[in-house]
Amino acid sequence: MSNPETGSTCRTLSWLAGVLLGILAFLFAWKSFEWGMILALIFGLIVFFVAGWLLIRLFCVSGRVETAGNLARAESAASAAPVPKRQPTAADDRKAVPEPVKAAKPESKAAPEAKPAETKATAATDGSPPKLKAARDGKPDDLKRIKGIGPGLEKQLHGMGIFHFDQIAAWTSAEIAWVDDNLIRFKGRASRDDWSGQAKTLAEGGETEFSRKVDKGSVY
For residues 168 and 148, what is the distance between their CA atoms, to the nearest angstrom? Predict the structure, then answer.
């Protein structure tokens, strides 16, 4: 009974043993002590219940505890056991080999066309003469060869987008009036010194009396 196959078998045997002990106690109390039958029966029942309960506690419960301990130890041993490593297969080897990376094809983008330098003056809507963002080929004409245009006025004209003789030569009367009104400290100078007429001569490759003085270095 110390090692029962199941818990129910252990309890059944314990109660059977309690029944036998209760019967013996009943007979012993009735015959030996000459108790009355009722008292002897009560005594036998008490022995039956106490004996059965004690046997279950001593054998069945301890057996379950031992069984549970054995199961716990078995589970602990199973978890502690090393898991065998899976041997690599040919399929794993094929997976391990990286696939060759395809080189990205360079995108063929057409090179942006180079924008030619702006050579034509842009007309304005405020009455001002056509302007250039910069001098053609980065080489402005020497506007100081025009009488009435000194270094300060030349810088003002550059700020207005005027860099070349042919620009000044093409001014209309309205544009000349606009320049006269917008010159700082030299208002009216463009029409008074006839900048447009001088510029036309210089743009065609000619010279003026003033431009010859400038070329000789006798003015600036």
Answer: 13
Quick one: tokens of 89? Answer: 């297969």
Note the pLDDT tens digit of each residue in 27-54.
877 777 777 778 878 877 888 888 878 8
- How far is the C-alpha of 74 from the C-alpha of 89, rounded, in Å? 33
What is the distance between the alpha carbons of residues 195 and 180, in angstroms, rounded to a whole number?
Answer: 11
| Helix runs in 120-193, H state only | 151-159, 165-169, 173-182, 189-192
Those residues with Cβ within 8 angstroms of residue 142's Cβ, 6 or more apart along the chain or in another chain: 214
Contact, 179 vs 210, CB < 8 A?
no
- Report the predicted TM-score, pTM, of the whole model to 2 decimal places: 0.46
Amino acid in the structure at residue 35: W
How many CB atoms are located within 10 Å of the residue 91 CB?
8
Q: Which residues contact 33 (CB under 8 A, 6 or more apart)?
A: 40
| 116 band by pLDDT with thresholds 50, 70 and 90 | very low
Vertex 110 angle, CA 108 and 112, to 5°: 145
CA gap 48, 26 in Å, rounded: 10
